[in-house]
Amino acid sequence: MSEDGVGIKDRVAIFDTTLRDGEQSPGAALNIDEKVEIARALQEMGVDVIEAGFPISSPGDFKAVQRISQEIRNCTICGLTRARQADIDAAVEALKDAARPRIHTGLGVSDVHIQHKLRTTREKALEMGVEAVKYARRFVEDVEYFAEDAGRADPTYLYRVLEAVIAAGATVVNIPDTTGYTTPGEFGALIAGIRDNVPNIDKAVISVHCHNDLGMATANALAGILNGARQAEVTVNGIGERAGNTSMEEVVMALRTRRDIFGVDTNIRTQHFYSVSKLVSQLTGIPVQPNKAIVGANAFAHSSGIHQDGVLKERTTYEIIDPRDVGVPDSAIILSARSGRHGLRHRLAELGLILDEEQFEKVYERFLKVADQKKTVDTRDLEAIVADEARMFFEETYHLEQVQVSCGSQSIPTATVRIKGPDGKVVCDADHGTGPVDAVYRAINRVIGEPNELIEFSVQAVTEGIDAVGRVTIRIQAEKPVNGGVRRVFSGHGADTDIITASAKAYMFALNRLIAARREATK
After folding, report:
1. How far apart are CA 150 and CA 173, in angstroms?
2. Under a CB-based contact definition with an 8 Å cutoff, are residues 253 and 216 in contact?
3. Handedness of CA 234, 238, 240, 244 (dihedral sign)
4. pLDDT tens readout for residues 87-106
5. Domain harbouring 93, CATH code
6. Distance CA 57, CA 61 (A)
7. Buried b (16+ CB within 10 A) or exposed e, 308-346
8. Which of 363, 390, 417 is the last residue before a domain boundary?
């Protein structure tokens, strides 16, 4: 039984082909070090099989498979081949150091592939496939056979091929919907037909490999699993040839979220999804579309006021997956013209602004005017909205009177600050740091002594030219909980023609907000 009490009948092996089929996406070429880095991330995530490449295709692919075989010890490492001895020999050599090697070989089974690509007959193609499996089994115990374009093949011929290659020693039979042609009903029936009509199918694992040409790759893979497939061939972010492959994160989370339907699970540590998605996107140069399921920027973002109100009251009103389960820190409340008071109040609280009803209504009115002019209202927009009246919202406890910095290529950055405290007393102190801003912030900390972590720092020119006014925006997180046991985040901004002075003003702004919030919480 699983932790939530739903019976798990079996587990589905996750076969990741990001480094092989995924890399075939136009412009997604990876070097050897990048492939190894992704392979390490896949191993850490709990992937069962990594298809590391196509060894005979290029010296670089051969070396990548070889390196991954040497360094990745907790996954089966797979090398792709055509049904040719030379291909298999190259894979054997590349995989010789693998803890668990697998050779993935095969041929097309549709008449389109047999006649136009292979230029042969059904019988000869079957013989070639059987011989390839027998040859591969001389070197490894784990041989997977792909029946390319199975989605468009004559089922009777497909059954014959699968029976023959299993008899020859194939341990896994891969049923690809190579062109993304089938519908979920058709593909599910195809897998069910294989189970019913291939006499020795119990001696091999059925694998599904679906493409997304009609947008049904995930649905087809899940239909295959529902009908008995126990390996899913997937890629991170769904990258791959043409419209891409089945998305790993979508399949795994569908199986986990709907255990009541599928009754199976995987070994994947889903908390790694978000970080691995970003890694693959960064290294391949293929961005993740914002509305991509599970790992897209909008997957856990809420813009509608009705949705925001629901999620803030109870996450499950509009989220079937806890964002933390896939490595996303938290749901995002996106402020727009559709946002309501609850969403705005929540965001202002995150920024450390504690407003009474009258103050909040003024800010809300100004917010709506800005929101009507922009698609979204971000943190900086909010700060600009309240900037003119900010000091109405909290009492300034400490005031920066002077800042002076000494730095240069041959000197240690040092800062001196003069700060007036709540009792009117002026304190002067100094410190050094890794740079002038760091030195200023350290000096301020010596005077104020409010522990915090700087989590965001940005500089933007407000005007143009050499004498431009620079605007510094920062966000700090309180080291000690504020109001309800939460380590809240406070923002600050400052503007000046001197960026160091602007940075000091922004930090003082954020610190005063933090101190005001802590004082308010104790009332």
Report:
1. 11
2. no
3. positive
4. 999 999 999 999 999 999 99
5. 3.20.20.70
6. 7
7. bbbbbeebeebbebebeebbbeebbbbbbbebbebbbbb
8. 390
